[in-house]
Every structure is written in C-alpha cells, then in structure tokens.
C-alpha cells in the first residue's frame, strides 16, 4: 500500500472520532468562552463586555456568595473522596492483592455499585434517608441509636456529607480495582527479596509497593479531582437544583445549570454568568489536574 493509501486509511479511522470530539467538546468549550465575554438579554447576545462577567461572579452579590459557597462544597467532595473513598480503595486493593479467601467474589461485589445508574442510586438513597420510613432510620432505631434519627438531607450541616456518603459507596470499587491492578504489576522479585530479608509487611508496602504504584495513585487523584469539580447528578437527584437546604449542597455544577438554564430558584437564564462558570470549571479541572500530574511525576519510581 502506497503512502496515499495509508493516509486515507488513517483519515478514515481518525475523522469520525475527531469530528465527534469537535462537536461535543471543542466547539462548546470555545462557544462558552466566547459567550462569557458578552452581555446577554435572555437568549440574545448583546454588547461585548470583556471580563465583566467573571468580575460579577467573583465580586458581585449574590453571585460571589453562591460561587464561593459552591467552591467550598466541591472542596468538601474532593477531600472526603480522597480521605475515605480512595483510602478504602487502597486498603481493599491491597487485601485483594494478597489473594485472601474469596477475593474473586469480593472484586465483583466491590465493583458492582459502579455499574449502577447514578440517578437510580441517588433516588434510592434519598428514600433510605427519609426520616419517617427510610431504611437507615429503621436500622438506627433497631440498634437503639435514636440520636442518629434525623433529617439528614434536610439539615444544612449534614446534607452535603449525606450525599457524599452515597457517592463514596458507589465509587469505592473503581479505585479498588485500579490499585489492585497496579499492585499486581509490582515485580514479584522485589517483594520476595524484601520478604527473605525479614522485612515487615507494613514496611514492604510503604517502602516498595507504594512508590511503585504512584502512577495509579496519580490517575485516581486526577479523576477524583475532576469528578469532585463536576458534581451534578448526585446533588440533582437527592437535593434538587437549588442546592437545598439553603444552598448547603450547591456545587459548581448545579450553580452553572441554574444560572445558564434557570430553575425553580432562578427562572431567568443568565447565559453570560453560566458561560463564565463553565469556563471557570474547565480552567479549574485543567489547571489542578496538570499540577497534580507534575507533582506526582516527580515522585514516580523507575525500576
């Protein structure tokens, strides 16, 4: 096959995918960036205002209050997911890598929630949290933990954490399998040599296994970061778009949707603010992900 034929075949496989990415990702990204520089009257684009929309988001009430409140909730999502979800994922992955009895069954059990629809899981857990007939309330009553019987989704101090708990339950299986795969790829001779030298199990993990799975930790951290910034469906199904109660569960995702398309709390679409928020979300995802990758690359261990 000549060079021209090879080029045509390459284009044949690349163009459909590239076209889809351009339509679904690249075009909306640049359209949002362009729209954020203009004032809007409903769905009509007005005059060019430069960075005024971003200034409004950061400094003008109530936009700035809603924005920083949402940022704070997204930060809660990230910290909770890293500390609880990924720590348990690392622990479960390590236990499964030791080939404990029934590990094949456990792998399927841990990963099963990941396969479930987030909308279905959200609505189901919302029923579990119901203070009158929810499963959790009945369980707490049976255990004699009456102090735990409360409106978890109706209390501004617990609502966000209640939704985060659901998300952790659903996603823990993913880092578990990623860490398991990474640990299974650690050279056996490294572990055998340390074991023959009488190295304690914890020291072997911390000094040998952990440094060698840094790439997997980097991937999980970046995905957790992106997922925490883009939280939407979980809050939508369990607390609605207005971030009830009293914006306690509001995130950048729900704030963006409410601003760009309107909702119960904001019936008038503000495309300029929504576009600005979408650009901010993109910049946060890209910038923080790059910083994480660069930070982890310095800690990678080469065999």
Describe this structure in words.
By secondary structure, the protein is mainly α. It has a domain at 70-118 and 156-297: Orthogonal Bundle (MetI-like fold), CATH 1.10.3720. It is built from 14 helices and two strands; from the N terminus they run αββααααααααααααα. The chain has a two-stranded antiparallel ribbon. β1 (38-41) and β2 form a beta hairpin. The chain starts with a helix and ends in a 6-residue tail after the last helix.
CATH structural fold name of the domain at 70-118 and 156-297:
MetI-like fold
What is the molecular shape? globular
- CA radius of gyration: 24 Å
Overall mean pLDDT stands at 90
Report the helical percentage. 55-70%
Main sheet makeup: 2 strands, antiparallel
Stretches where pLDDT is under 50 for at least 5 consecutive residues are: none
CATH architecture of the domain at 70-118 and 156-297: Orthogonal Bundle
CATH superfamily of the domain at 70-118 and 156-297: MetI-like
Structural class: mainly alpha
Give the N-to-C terminal Cα separation. 40 Å
Number of strands: 2
Order of helices and strands: HEEHHHHHHHHHHHHH
Our estimate of the beta-strand percent is under 5%
CATH class of the domain at 70-118 and 156-297, named: Mainly Alpha
Query: In which order are the strands of the major sheet placed?
Result: 1-2
Total number of helices: 14
